[in-house]
């Protein structure tokens, strides 16, 4: 055995030594596997995202682009065909997905054209890798956005009956509202699939192009389906699945246009690969992307159903309560920055009664007990509270599909969050109306010790005043957003009209 090992070690030795001493020495792999000594280009293997900017690859590419327009115009593959010809002597390197013989393989090893490019080898190599990996991204995203996973999670007969109990059946209309969010969610999924590492300013331009491209691709598809028959909740999964899959055809178009050097949704390939976003890209993490999108779509659908019922988030007092304004359900609380926030549902009494039960009681929202497990394991009560609070802090009760789109774009473009990584907890997936009762601690509302109540058949909150933010208008707006206009229950004990 020993001689074999020794031989193997000897065989590896030259390759290891080929890495210059000033370079980081770490296991080096090219996308096609093992490290090989491939001529001068080998010196630049082991590239990192930041190298793109360090070696001014963006400027280099712009110069190349501007001085090779005729080469690009002459090649049927446009940009990538021309670049493949210039960089590797391969004019068929078109990286298109159209069933033609074109390819996107990198034949770098001992490639004479490339290895004779002298000072340009590094930048040329970074661009070849990035274009190749961007192509991998477009192929991978097609596999992540399959109907199978989404359909299984969303096609459920029990969908509306689980999360919806109101007497009048608004659930079909409510679920259809979820369609307004699909394009943004697909965009979030597409950028999440492309941004492998942490979101930084350098790759934000690429992320925003990914988001914008997917958003554009999906919006037009949603438009084609809004009039489809949509009779029951089970159709939602099928419809969302169709929209997501149809969007994929647009991703193929996106790939082909970008590779050809054209723009797609206002950005060309230079934006997509800017900042080295694809320089060390390892491919789409399909499970992570599918999970994130499924959870965001489930969350959006549950939110739409809850938004037609008396579901709300109330809190803003100290964690642990004990401030004279009652105490909330400890099974549905998030403690954030020292303040406790609770998820509530005001259940109406469903039998005729002359006792105080006629006013209903507060309980866990319909279906909330099935969240966090089995098919709904990726969506929790905590997600609902966090996501709603973030949305409320941004846009009060007016957070809508347009807000969601612009906030997700802003998060990626300005690199302050990677929405996909937050799944259903991402801001605005839930927009349950929030009432901040912190100011009630120092106010003298009648029966204020019953503002917060735990869940239970005998739990009836009493709100005799401007309990939300200590502000009459805010309280009115909250009551309205929570579907409690004209609902007498929370004021049934008040001696005076509380003004909402
Ligand atoms: C592009 O094609 C034209 C016409 O055939 C030719 O004159 C020109 O030299 C070509 N340009 C390049 C860069 O190959
Ligand atoms: C909700 O927010 C709290 C406080 O910021 C945080 O500790 C918690 O992890 C969040 N929960 C989820 C599910 O994101």
Summed up:
This protein is of the alpha+beta class and 500 residues long.
Distance between the termini: 86 Å
Sheet with most strands: 5 strands, mixed
Strand content: 5-15%
What is the arithmetic mean of pLDDT? Answer: 87
**Which hetero compounds are present in the coordinates?**
2-acetamido-2-deoxy-beta-D-glucopyranose
What is the SS-derived class? alpha+beta
Q: Percentage of helical residues?
A: 40-55%
H/E topology pattern: HEEHHHHHHHHHHHHHHEEEEHHHEH
Question: What is the molecular shape?
Answer: elongated
Number of strands: 7
Low-confidence stretches: 1-28
Query: Rg from C-alpha positions?
Result: 28 Å
Keywords: Signal
Q: What key phrases describe this protein's structure?
A:
6% strand; 500 residues; disordered N terminus; two-stranded antiparallel sheet; 2 domains; 19 helices; elongated; binds 2-acetamido-2-deoxy-beta-D-glucopyranose; single chain; 5-stranded mixed sheet; alpha+beta
SSE inventory with pairings:
Layout: H1 2-17, E1 29-30, E2 33-34, H2 49-54, H3 57-67, H4 69-74, H5 78-88, H6 112-115, H7 121-144, H8 147-154, H9 159-163, H10 171-176, H11 179-194, H12 201-225, H13 234-260, H14 269-272, H15 286-306, E3 311-318, E4 333-336, E5 339-347, E6 361-363, H16 381-395, H17 401-413, H18 419-422, E7 434-436, H19 472-481
Parallel strand pairs: 3-7
Antiparallel strand pairs: 1-2, 3-5, 4-5, 5-6
Helix pairs in contact: 5-7, 7-13, 7-15, 8-13, 8-15, 11-12, 11-15, 11-17, 12-13, 12-17
The structure holds 2-acetamido-2-deoxy-beta-D-glucopyranose (2 copies).
One 2-acetamido-2-deoxy-beta-D-glucopyranose (NAG) is lined by residues 70-71, 74.
């Amino acid at each position: 055995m020993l001689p074999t090992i020794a031989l193997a070690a000897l065989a590896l030795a030259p390759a290891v030594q080929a890495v210059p001493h000033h370079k980081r020495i770490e296991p080096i792999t090219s996308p096609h596997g093992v490290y090989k000594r491939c001529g001068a280009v080998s010196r630049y293997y082991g590239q990192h995202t930041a190298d793109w900017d360090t070696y001014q690859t963006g400027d280099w590419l712009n110069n190349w682009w501007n001085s090779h327009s005729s080469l690009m115009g002459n090649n049927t593959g446009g940009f990538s065909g021309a670049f493949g010809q210039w960089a590797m002597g391969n004019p068929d390197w078109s990286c298109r997905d159209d069933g033609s013989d074109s390819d996107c393989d990198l034949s770098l090893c001992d490639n004479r054209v490339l290895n004779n490019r002298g000072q340009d080898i590094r930048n040329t190599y970074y661009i070849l890798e990035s274009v190749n990996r961007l192509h991998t991204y477009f192929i991978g995203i097609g596999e992540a956005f399959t109907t199978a996973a989404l359909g299984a999670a969303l096609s459920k007969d029990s969908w509306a009956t689980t999360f919806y109990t109101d007497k009048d059946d608004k659930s079909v209309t409510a679920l259809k509202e979820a369609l307004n969010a699909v394009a943004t969610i697909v965009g979030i999924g597409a950028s999440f699939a492309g941004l492998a590492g942490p979101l930084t300013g350098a790759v934000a331009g690429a992320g925003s192009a990914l988001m914008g491209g997917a958003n554009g691709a999906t919006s037009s598809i949603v438009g084609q389906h809004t009039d489809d028959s949509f009779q029951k909740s089970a159709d939602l999964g099928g419809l969302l699945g169709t929209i997501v899959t149809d969007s994929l055809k647009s991703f193929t178009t996106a790939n082909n246009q970008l590779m050809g050097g054209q723009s797609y949704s206002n950005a060309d390939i230079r934006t997509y690969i800017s900042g080295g976003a694809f320089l060390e890209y390892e491919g789409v993490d399909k499970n992570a992307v599918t999970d994130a999108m499924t959870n965001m779509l489930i969350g959006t659908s549950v939110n739409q159903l809850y938004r037609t019922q008396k579901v709300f988030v109330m809190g803003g007092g100290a964690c642990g309560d004990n401030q004279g304004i009652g105490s909330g359900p400890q099974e549905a609380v998030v403690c954030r920055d020292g303040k406790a926030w609770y998820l509530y549902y005001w259940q109406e009494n469903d039998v005729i009664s002359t006792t105080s039960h006629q006013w209903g009681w507060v309980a866990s929202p319909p279906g909330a007990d099935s969240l966090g497990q089995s098919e709904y394991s990726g969506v929790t009560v905590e997600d609902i509270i966090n996501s709603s609070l973030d949305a409320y802090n941004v846009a009060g009760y007016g957070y809508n599909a347009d807000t969601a789109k612009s906030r997700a774009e802003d998060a990626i473009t300005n690199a302050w969050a990677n929405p996909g990584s937050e799944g259903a907890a991402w801001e605005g997936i839930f927009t349950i109306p929030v009432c901040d009762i912190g100011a009630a601690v120092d106010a003298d509302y009648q029966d204020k010790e019953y503002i917060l109540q735990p869940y239970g058949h005998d739990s009836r909150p009493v709100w005799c005043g401007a309990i939300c933010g200590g502000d009459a208008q805010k309280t009115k707006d909250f009551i309205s957003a929570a579907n409690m206009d004209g609902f007498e229950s929370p004021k049934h004990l008040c001696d005076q009209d509380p003004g909402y």
